[in-house]
Amino acid sequence: MWALVINPTSGSGKGSTTGGRVAAFLTSRNIEHQIISGISASSVATNLAVFIDNFPECNGVISVGGDGLAHIVLQKTTPAQIPLAVIPAGTGNDFVRSLGWSLEHIDPYLEAIISTAPKSIDLGLVDGEWFGAVLSTGFDSMVNERANTMSWPKGPMKYNAAIAIELPRFKPRHYEITLDDRSISTEAMLIAVANGRSYGGGMLVCPDADIADALFDVMVLHPVSKIEFLKVFPRVFKGTHVTHPAVEIVRSSSVKISADAVAYADGERIGPLPISAQCIPKAMLTWIP
């Protein structure tokens, strides 16, 4: 038995279409599955928890949606050590990017799910909450805070509009960062704690991050002028920003961050700092190419 968790509204309706494709695939292979959805994030989590209670040794859970849905599902599958596959149907899909699967062609992913054994990867754990890709604080979190209050525009343009609103008023914050082997006291514009390589819909904030090395890549963007920030920012989509002198990347299995700021993980609000995060080796069972 499999659980098929679908967010029909993700990706402006792509979740519904892709969810139908996955259900049809499973049916065509005579694979028993139960579709799980809900009217809210909490109801999805509750319904999935009931499924896991009823089928504690199920084959796995397939999440069809974006990083937000995957984040919800992670909280239930990881403690139960149930394999999780994340089929991309959202706006960002950065967890799937980190796993190495194509965003366009899901058939190889589906074939792997039913024909090969899952493998273990690392996850981040921040104050009791699991995350798969990136935990961040600073300018991007302020942009998320702003975007979450906006009803227009929709999709990725909302994030761009929020950047335009927040950047003119943004000022670097002072951060106290504690790592495995050092402490850093610094002004910074952004800090990203990366288990996966990207966030924000393909921004390669830590392009060398490895989901199976038991370490976070921690990127610190030290203060630059706003003009310089606008020059550097586009480079994050290719990961070439890491050569900029204001960018510092260190590796650590644990990270503590204190500041007057908020944090987000996998695009979901974690809350105000201070926060404490650990990279948990082999925490999750999933399929990778």
Automatic annotation (TrEMBL):
Record-linked Gene3D superfamilies: 2.60.200.40, Probable inorganic polyphosphate/atp-NAD kinase, domain 1 (3.40.50.10330)
Keyword Lipid metabolism attached: yes
Cited Pfam families: DAGK_cat, YegS_C
UniProtKB keywords: ATP-binding, Kinase, Lipid biosynthesis, Lipid metabolism, Magnesium, Metal-binding, Nucleotide-binding, Phospholipid biosynthesis, Phospholipid metabolism, Transferase
Cellular component GO terms held in the UniProt record: plasma membrane
GO aspect biological process, one term: phospholipid biosynthetic process
UniProt cofactor(s): Mg(2+)
Protein name: Unannotated protein
Gene source species: freshwater metagenome
